[in-house]
Automatic annotation (TrEMBL):
GO biological process, one term: L-tyrosine catabolic process
Alphabetical list of PANTHER family matching this protein: 4-HYDROXYPHENYLPYRUVATE DIOXYGENASE
Lineage of producing organism: Eukaryota, Sar, Stramenopiles, Ochrophyta, Bacillariophyta
InterPro entries: 4OHPhenylPyrv_dOase, Glyas_Bleomycin-R_OHBP_Dase
Keywords of this entry: Phenylalanine catabolism, Tyrosine catabolism
E.C. number: 1.13.11.27
Molecular function terms, GO-annotated: 4-hydroxyphenylpyruvate dioxygenase activity
Low complexity composition-biased segments: 13-32
Protein name: 4-hydroxyphenylpyruvate dioxygenase
Metabolic or biological pathway: Amino-acid degradation; L-phenylalanine degradation; acetoacetate and fumarate from L-phenylalanine: step 3/6
C-alpha cells in the first residue's frame, strides 16, 4: 500500500517540504522507501502591508447616504421579543421601550433599543386573526 504524508507548513517564510513514502508490506518485514522529496520557497503575492491596504481600498468602494443624521433604524421580523433580546445581549443595548396590545397597538409589537445616539426598533406584526379580533372588539365597544 502507499501512504502519502501531507505537506508540512511551518511559517510563511520557511521551506515547504513534501515527502511521499511508500511502504511495502510482506509477511515478516515492512520496508519504507522515500522516493520523492521536493523543496520550494513560499512567497506572498503582495509583499508589504501598504500594498495590501491599497489593494483592499481599490476593491471596496464606499457608498454614502446624502443625509446628516437619522433618528432610528427599524427591523421587521417574525418574533420581535426574541430578536430584541438577542440584539440587546449581543450589542449591549438595553431595551428601553415597547409597544404592543397593552399600549393600544393592535397591528404590531415593537421593542426599542438605545445606546447613546444609536436607536434600533424591532417590530413584528400580529397575525391577521388577532387584527380581526381587535377590530371586532373596537366595533363592539
Amino acid at each position: 500500500f502507499t501512504t502519502l504524508h501531507p505537506k508540512s507548513f511551518i511559517g510563511p517564510s520557511s521551506l515547504i517540504t513534501t515527502t511521499t513514502t511508500r511502504q511495502q508490506a510482506s509477511s515478516s518485514t515492512t520496508e519504507t522507501i522515500e522516493n520523492d522529496t521536493s523543496t520550494s520557497k513560499w512567497k506572498p503575492k503582495v509583499a508589504s502591508l501598504k500594498d495590501r491596504r491599497n489593494l483592499r481600498s481599490q476593491e471596496h468602494n464606499t457608498e454614502t447616504i446624502g443625509s446628516k443624521a437619522f433618528h432610528h433604524i427599524e427591523f421587521y421580523c417574525g418574533d420581535a421579543k426574541a430578536t430584541a433580546l438577542r440584539f440587546s445581549l449581543a450589542l449591549g443595548m438595553p431595551i428601553v421601550c415597547e409597544s404592543g396590545q397593552h399600549t393600544g397597538n393592535d397591528k404590531c409589537v415593537s421593542y426599542g433599543l438605545e445606546s447613546e445616539n444609536v436607536r434600533f426598533i424591532v417590530t413584528a406584526p400580529y397575525s391577521e386573526a388577532v387584527q380581526k379580533q381587535a377590530a371586532a372588539a373596537a366595533a363592539n365597544g
